[in-house]
Specification:
339 residues; alpha/beta; 6-stranded parallel β-sheet; 15 helices
Length: 339
């Protein structure tokens, strides 16, 4: 089987080692799929299998769990068969491999079997480092599947997903979808598939809003705004959307605390003149907004809300077995106190 197309080396690989994106993965005598991003790794392995079957529909595919590997297994599954079929072997979980796998894979790397594609899937970590170093030293094609963390990478992923389906989206729509769904690539891929299936033409921000509008607004400060406005229904709805999309309770409580701190600071300057207001170090719009919001607050209500959030802060940081319940209770108490 022909080797994969090669790209310039990445910082994550040894000098001279071929580096591939998942969409460039291709059959080769040995292929390393490395990195913790499971969706990209699964796609890379599946692509190798699909391309191998296109070359030979009768290719025999075998999967091995590296964590349960026994000595000699690799030699058995890569040995010539009675009918001499092409074979493809996928070894999953090399990051938790046995010592026997390391020994056998190192020996195999020195002399790969003909008509065999061996795919080694390593999810990250130091286990199997000796094998990884040997693979990269041998310039084995390496598919790097790093976690997607930067916003630019998430938007690029969404754009590429839609392009693969023959669709385009407005930049504002891509941004809104990333904001709504978060950083989980499986959820982003599923959201792209839904939009492709349920809409036509260029995907607009309005289309994303129709499907994911609740999630787009579910940031910590939107939750805090609704609570401080005394709207418990909307605040809890936004809170549950935020939690459902993976927002941690700690920053949600922090957003509530930040909003209340601004109210308390501005309230403390009442009647003390502009010099006291300027000394707060707040932007003029923050002061103006806080002054408007304070119209619905009494000193007692503000104190009650601050106490509720302080309790929730301790609970979400370890004093409660249910941090999500703790933050929801705080939201309800703040909304009630604002009345």
């Amino acid at each position: 089987m022909p080797p994969a197309t090669r790209r310039p080396a990445s910082r994550n690989t040894a000098p001279g080692a071929p580096f591939l994106g998942w969409q460039d993965a291709a059959p080769a005598p040995v292929v390393l799929v490395s990195g913790p991003e499971e969706l990209l790794a699964e796609r890379a392995v599946e692509r190798v299998i699909v391309l191998a079957r296109q070359q030979d529909p009768e290719v025999e595919v075998t999967r091995i769990d590296a964590g349960e590997y026994g000595r000699g297994t690799l030699e058995v599954v890569t040995s010539p068969s009675l009918f001499d079929e092409a074979r493809l072997v996928v070894v999953d979980g090399v990051e938790r491999c046995t010592d026997d796998l390391i020994a056998d894979a190192l020996a195999y790397l020195a002399e790969p079997a003909p008509d065999v594609v061996l795919v080694l899937r390593h999810g990250g970590g130091q286990r199997g480092k000796k094998l990884l170093d040997a693979l990269r030293g041998a310039q084995v094609p390496t598919v790097q599947c790093d976690l997607v963390k930067k916003d630019a990478d998430k938007t690029a992923f969404v754009t590429a997903e839609l392009r693969r389906s023959g669709r385009r989206a407005e930049p504002a729509a891509v941004r809104a979808l990333v904001d709504a769904v978060g950083s989980d690539l499986r959820e982003l891929a599923a959201a792209c598939a839904q939009l492709v299936a349920d809409s036509t033409g260029v995907i607009s921000a309005a289309t994303v809003e129709r499907y994911y509008g609740g999630r787009v607004e579910a940031s910590g400060f939107h939750v805090a705004d609704a609570a401080l406005e005394g709207d418990p229904g909307r605040a809890v709805a936004l809170l549950r959307h935020a939690l459902a999309t993976g927002v941690d309770p700690v920053p949600l409580v922090a957003a509530l605390a930040a909003k209340l701190r601004v109210l308390a600071k501005v309230a403390a300057t009442r009647g003390r003149g502009q010099d006291a207001v300027r000394a707060l170090g707040l932007a003029p719009w923050q002061v103006e907004r806080a002054a408007r919001e304070l119209a619905r607050w009494t000193p007692e209500g503000l104190a009650e809300a601050i106490t509720a959030v302080a309790q929730a802060d301790a609970e979400v940081k370890g004093q409660s077995r249910d941090p999500q319940f703790a933050v929801e209770r705080a939201v309800l108490r703040v909304a009630a106190a604002s009345r």
